[in-house]
Specification:
Layout (H helix, E strand, L loop, with lengths): L10 H10 L14 H11 L7 H19 L7 H34 L2 H16 L2 H4 L11 H27 L12 H23 L1
Helix pairs in contact: 1-2, 2-3, 3-4, 5-8, 7-8
Protein name: SWT1 protein
Organism: Brachypodius melanocephalos (black-headed bulbul)
InterPro entries: SWT1_Regulator
Length: 210
């Protein structure tokens, strides 16, 4: 009788009910800091704009966090484990698709990209990346803090792998017999990786300041 929205619920209605009754009801069932997860899902699922793969990956992970938290209370007649399994399957599928795309791009670059073409590609990429620099300097999901340390580690690892691949390519140019090049990261990937690293370090510094 006191519900903010009456059933049957859509997902949008359910997320609104979570936020409305969080402190009085749901905060006593699961950790209260998961409100940031609810806000993240609500903000991005109904933003009326297309998703990129990074957004989808974060939304899936936030969904898994929420389902796992409620599983500590009950399995809800088996519905919750089934939902968790489906979200996990989506995460795995997304990872496979992203890996296939990266492998395809690398294969095409190795086949058709000469040394001069690589220089031209880097020069042409810089202006378009500068226009997105402001956006990349700010974290896309300020409310999703639970797995922030994992996100920072992933960025650091990505920067290391990218720079390592460039080093391999450089040494191969200097002495083809010394190194066998297996893959080449794009200049755009390296640039965006550094921007993400800058945003992560800035957030860590602000956290220490607080």
């Amino acid at each position: 009788q006191i519900l903010y929205l009456k059933p049957p619920w859509t997902l949008a209605n359910l997320l609104k009910c979570y936020k409305k009754h969080w402190m009085a009801v749901f905060g006593y069932v699961v950790p209260r800091n998961l409100l940031s997860t609810i806000e993240c899902l609500s903000k991005h699922l109904y933003a009326d704009k297309p998703f990129d793969s990074s957004t989808v990956r974060v939304l899936l992970q936030e969904s898994k966090n929420l389902l796992h938290a409620f599983s500590c209370r009950s399995d809800y007649n088996g519905v919750l484990p089934q939902a968790y399994a489906e979200v996990t399957k989506l995460c795995e599928t997304l990872g496979e698709v992203r890996a296939d795309l990266v492998e395809q791009d690398l294969s095409e670059d190795i086949m058709v990209l000469s040394e001069n073409a690589a220089c031209e590609k880097m020069e042409a990429t810089v202006p378009s990346l500068q226009s997105t620099e402001e956006k990349e300097l700010h974290p896309s999901f300020p409310g999703a803090q639970e797995n922030r340390h994992q996100e920072i580690w992933a960025v650091l690892e990505g920067v290391w792998n990218t720079m390592n691949l460039y080093s391999v390519e450089l040494f191969q140019k200097l002495d083809p017999s010394a190194v066998t090049m297996t893959a080449k990261a794009s200049f755009e990937e390296a640039f965006l990786g550094l921007q993400k690293l800058l945003a992560a370090v800035k957030e860590i510094r602000e956290g220490i300041g607080r």
